[in-house]
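Problem 12. The chain below contains 121 residues. Write out its predicted structure in token notation.
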Amino acid sequence: MDKSKSPAPIKPEISIDVLERIDVRVATIERVEDVRGSDKLVKLTVDFGDHKRTILAGMKHERAQPNEIEGKQALFVVNLEPRKMMGEVSEGMLFDIGYADGLTPVLAVPEKEVPNGSRAG
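Solution.
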């Protein structure tokens, strides 16, 4: 780990009500599959406890074995508009750490297992 790298500047302030509109939840990644025709995207089948969703994540370049995250809990933004990519619809966003800073991303995960669907914040 490169400890000499300075953190990115803090983004502009937002109000608490803007933050409260972002719905971040814990879910278990059940399955990781290739997205046909994409050298970057994988399709995650994710269990939120009361329902499952398909979430696309661009992690093929960062992980030699993307399916190594199957069975792990992670954080997801669940109230984004669905987005179609490479013929598939993504129903949220995987929360990761490091990508925006040019680091190899890692999952944002709970310290210990919690019920799927638990809210962050």
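Discussion. Residues 17 and 120 are 15 Å apart (CA to CA). Students who got a different answer should revisit the alignment rule from Section 12.3.
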